[in-house]
Amino acid sequence: MARVFSGIQPSGELHIGNYLGAVRNWVELQHRYESFFCVVDYHAITGSYEPADLRRRTRDMAVSLLAAGVDPEKCTLFVQSAVPEHTELAWIFNSVTPLGELERQTQYKDKSSRQESILAGILNYPVLQAADIALYKSELVPVGEDQVQHLELAREIVRRWNAKFGIDFFVEPKPLLTETRRIMGLDGRAKMSKSLGNTIGLLEESAEIWSKLRPAMTDPARVRRTDPGTPEVCNIYHIHRAFSSPETVEHVAQECRSAGWGCIDCKRVLLNSMEAELAPIRARAAELRASPELVNEALAAGAASATIVASATLGDAKQIMGLC
Ligand code: SF4
User: Fold this and answer.
1) The whole model's pTM is what?
2) Terminus of the chain with fewer CB atoms < 10 Å: N or C?
3) What integer is the mean pLDDT of 191-208?
């Protein structure tokens, strides 16, 4: 089986945007590839944060992933800082990465334009990403369009290292373009994001979900219930496409276009569809929270498996480079 690596920031509990955009895909991939899935906590320390909060967010993310169906029997799930080879390889890759390549990264330009004092970690973030992937000689990386530039840089770093030492040692990772859904926030204006407060948490109870769905933005053309709408411009319709059956999606489109129902009716049907998928995930999360040793064991086993691969790769790379 080809190897896949993917990482996720320890942002606490998943919201449905990152569930649909990445994690539901991971649950599929783990059956088809040798998968390494990582909570990338080293990537989360380049801004201000509280240590206890980071620990809690990392933990909550692990609970969300396990509850969502990431199965430690089918993949290697671990926390990045439990495998220090990531940062050691990042230093090695820093030694072959031109500064100009890093300064051209969109994410660096965005962040540097907003912050007065720039930390080196923000500039070097893509180098650590390259190390994350290369450490497992991963052939494939599931990426969204906004990450393609980072993957291209990872490929460039690997090529430079291989060229410098005259050996085809590290694998150039390729993007794995799988169908994922990008869901807008409930305000319908921007991508779903915790910092914008426009999310639905994956583990939220039905009543909380309804309190957010009810006022959520729909097609602005539907001012009165009798106004026909255009489902394609409505975020609720796109969430239906992610959670509802094809028959229900068809029904939604029809009722919307003909003003056969109002947006509240439409959202009630959506809530039912979401509940069918999310209620079992919530139940699994509650079990995991009640038995924290299960989460500890899963992460420890994942870190041990990841370390076997990572230390072998790093050891060989150091040999090639004339290091101890
Ligand atoms: S009926 Fe449904 S799809 Fe149509 S605008 Fe309202 S919420 Fe959106």
Assistant:
1) 0.94
2) C
3) 92
